[in-house]
Specification:
The chain is mainly α and 93 residues long. It is built from five helices and no strands.
């Protein structure tokens, strides 16, 4: 179940989830949310996502993707955020 803050974020970006039925949007998985925002959101959307989820949760989601789900990211997006998340992880040690 998503927090009220995540649900509000999803509502604000409802157009990015155009193929998800309206009554199911607020309950999308964190993995799907991260995938869509990193692939299609702008930099302000990504900043807000980092703020809402925190680097630890976002890092766990991003680093645990495998197989087909990994291929859902655009290659340049996956490469960029791999470096960015790794940098933030090491700066929080």
């Amino acid at each position: 179940m998503n927090s009220p803050e995540v649900k509000a974020f999803i509502r604000q970006h409802s157009n990015l989830f155009w193929y998800t039925p309206e009554d199911k949007k607020e309950n999308i998985s964190p993995e799907f949310l991260v995938e869509i925002i990193l692939n299609y959101g702008d930099i302000n959307d990504v900043r807000k996502l980092f703020e809402i989820m925190g680097i630890e949760q976002l890092s766990d989601i991003f680093h645990n993707i495998k197989g087909r789900r990994k291929l859902n990211y655009f290659p340049e997006i996956y490469n960029f955020y791999s470096y960015l998340i790794e940098k933030h992880e090491h700066s929080n040690i």
